[in-house]
Structure prediction request, 122 residues.
Amino acid sequence: MNFSDRLISPVLYLLIDCPMSSTFIAASNSLKKRRWTYLGHVLRIPEDRLPSRVYQWQPEGRRRRGRPKHTLRRQYDRDLKKAKMSLTTQWEDITAAAQLRDEWRDFVDALCATDDSGGSKV
Prediction:
């Protein structure tokens, strides 16, 4: 297979008659839901276990040149900001909600039920 035999993404989307933006938004929401479900799992783990300690760890100093400043914690903050939720009091509520699985599922569903503009679909 050479380069001319390959299909580029926009052509592929036209062939299957699927708009590119809706597919991207659906994939983005799916990834966000998995990310937040994982956070609930980590927050329920006892604090002396490694995943919980890794999540709470704060690096000291600066990163080397060329290293991204992106962290998973910052991604969670961006998700909350995009959903127009306050960050200051939110983390205490998030930690408490993660301990109750039903409440956590409702929180994740509400957070992931927003469209790309940050507004609610409901």
About this structure: Helices lie at 9-15, 20-44, 50-56, 72-82, 90-99, 101-112. The two ends are 46 Å apart (CA to CA). Residues 20-44 form the longest helix (25 residues).
